[in-house]
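So, can you check what follows?
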Amino acid sequence: MIIDKKEIILKNGQKVLLQSAMEKDAEMICHHRYITSFESYFMARYPEEISLDVEGMKERLVSIEKDDKDFTITAFLDGKIIGDAGVTKIRNHMKYKHRAYFGISILKEYCNQGLGKYILDIALEQAEKNGFEQVELGVFEDNLGAIHLYKKCGFKKVGIQPRAFKLKDGTYRDEVQMVHIFN
């Protein structure tokens, strides 16, 4: 589905356009995912694991556009992607249709500017309108800024997956599992 466009102003005064990523944005989305995975180990993949398959990304974006529940929220600053998020159903099976998963990436330069909060607020509002009863996510245990934001937006910690992530240096990080349940 396509969400309504919204212009926001970051804490630094810059104007950002939030809208759904479209097929034409596929190459920029691939590049954004590569850069954000390079900037932080908090992303699920290392840069070399990011698919730069632009055609595959185009197909994925068209599929999301046609979906009645899944959506993306992409932050554009002067035509450049600085943040990207998605809400997708966990599974299409009847027993799962009430659940959605949330993922987000923001360029390091634009962290702590309020962008994550704007995106998350829109994502939760739209997810509830789309009939989801809860939104779930997983976050690195040491990503304290993200955990703080999620709690601020109503997410509750529901569990820990020990050693969920193994880094290249051989160390492990637990994953904090969180859920936002709509009333």
